[in-house]
Each structure stands twice: as structure tokens, then as C-alpha cells.
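Example record

Each entry pairs one chain with its bound ligand, calcium ion.
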Amino acid sequence: MTQTTGNYYPAVILGLIAALVAVFALYVVERAGAAAVQSLPAAGSARQEAQYQWKMVTTWPKNFPGLGAAPENFARSVAAMSNGRLQIKVYGANELVPALGVFDAVSSGSVEAGHGAAYYWKGKIAAAPLFTSVPFGINAQEMNGWLHYGGGLALWREVYAPFNLVPFAAGNTGVQMAGWFNREINSVEDLKGLKMRIPGYGGEVWTRAGGTAVNIPGGELYTALQTGVIDATEWVGPYNDLAFGFHQVAKYYYYPGWQEPGPTLELIVNKTALESLPADLQAIVEVAARAANQDMLDEYTARNNAALTELIDTHGVQVRRLPDDVLRTLRATAEQIYRETAQSDPVFARVYRAYREFAEQSQAYHRVSEQANYDIRNLR
Ligand code: CA
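C-alpha cells for the complex follow.
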């Protein structure tokens, strides 16, 4: 599967990139005006000789399907679009810094860029998970709408500015699964004492509802589940979970992914490093991130279906839905946590208000569009 991805990816993405670059070039020319355009060739030719070498650290295992492919694809796109003027070397988790050391490494400038997820930094920034995914929040399509046309990205950049970081959306898995369990969940009582790997606000909800939440990087999860260090884990969805082999160490696969309804992965770039690039390379970074963002969602949308079938038919995985009373409790707990966090953290309060307003509008329309469309597929 990974091999196939590597082969077809460049043709599809390079086509898209070529179109985006052409559109951007037209935009630049139009904005620059006639006088500025005349002065461009001299400055441009001097700049074109400059070469930039960046390091990018990630929270994912090296070359991990989907999540780990996004930073590699991004780096390849940037190199192709810049004709090799900006080269980005990608490092997997623990190669240069630990998975959860990515934010600090990019913030300090010891590396120029990182790929991961904003909700890993919840301990530093209470509002950060709103830029990935929060329990009972918006889906991938809505996240993309909010970030790029609803003011979300501007807020994200404002929140990260004190850390000398510029964030970009650079991947989305779509709605996830609730996770892998070695115990059946039939009621809220069954959450008691259940030790689960679940990051972000999902983890806080889990703990308050009676369970115990831990945040363990992806690469360590299989062993943790196998040895009983944890009783359950959420990770992503069928495509990624099958690659990790969780079906070998857990019996039940629960849905829906209440904890992550459409997580956005992040590219973070050290602000000083980004601003040291000429304008065309900065634009290439922006466009390549946008392409990687959409590409990941496309890949998951295509591959999750086949992977779920394989998990059920070949590996005998039991797929279960979390009971409504459990979901109701988790939802009420999440709302409580958002209210409390908004009271104690003004930045969270501001971002959450914007997120919530977008979610409410979007839901009103999606009820008569997306949701209604899913419903009519089953009309008999
Ligand atoms: Ca997850």
C-alpha cells in the first residue's frame, strides 16, 4: 500500500501544485502592479541562487502510512516547486527530538519546521486542541472551512505567535474510531479504572468520566496494549490501525470517534526561518501545506473502507458502537470542561467562542445538506 502511494502520488499532486502555482503567480503579478513587476527580474534572479536547507521533526514514526507520509509529501512538493531551492529533510519521532518535543524544537529554532498535531500541546496552550479536534466538535470538511474561510487559521497564528511559530493545516484524517478495547463497554460503569491512551480534551473527558487517560506516542502503543500497560487506545482509523496491528492485541473496535471528529494535523514553521525566505518560497510552503492537507483526507477517505473490511473479514475484529448513555455522559462532561476552561483561560474562551459559532452555523446547514444526503442513500 505504501509503495503504491509513493508511485501515484507525484503525478496527482504535481498536477495540482502546478495549477496552484500558476494561480498564485497570476495573483502576485496582479497585486504587484506594473511598476513593481518591472523591478522583479533583477531581485528575482539574485534570489534564485540562494539555497535553503531545513530540518523538519515529526511526532510520527518515520514513513508511517498516512500521518508520516504527509511531511514527506510536503517536503517533496516543496523541493519540486522550488526547483530544489528549498530542501527539507524529514526526521521521524525520536530521530532528532522525542515525538512530544517537536513544538519546543521548532519554537527555539533548533530546527526550522515540524509536523504533528496541535492538541499535543494542550499543556502549554489550552486553546491548541481547538485547532486539531475536540470531543463532539466539527468534522474535517468543517475544520477546513473554519480554518481557511472562517477565521480559524488567523486565530491559530495569533495564538502561536508568542512562541515564534507559524502554523499551517497540513493533513486531516477525517472522523476517527473510538478505539481498541480489551474490555466491553456496556455502561458508564465500565469506564471506571479503564486506562486508555487518549490525548487532548478527549483524555480529560475520559478521566473525569471515570477512566484513566494517558498520552503515549503512536510508536509505543502496540507494546503498551500488548503488555497491559493500557487497557485501551484510540489511534486513528482502520487504515492506520491495521498498519499498527492493533487487532493482534485488542479484541473490540469501538465507534464513533467522539473524541476526534476530524483532526487537522499541523505544520509548524519557525517564524524567523519562514520570514528569512524570499516571498516565492514562502508562498510555496503555504501552497504545499494546503495540498498536503487535502491529500491526506483524500487518502484516508479512499483507504479506510478497504482496511475496515479486512479487519472484520480477515482478522475477525468485533466492531461495536459505544452505547448512547456512555456518549451522553462523555458529551456532558466535555461541555462542562469547555465551560470551566473558558472561565479560567481568556484565550481559550475567545477561540472556543469563534469555533462554536462556526460549528452552530455549519450544523444548521449540514443538517439539510450533508446529513440529509447520507439519510437518503438508505431510503427504500
Ligand atoms: Ca486519535
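The pocket of calcium ion is lined by residues 176, 234-236, 260 (CB under 6 Å).
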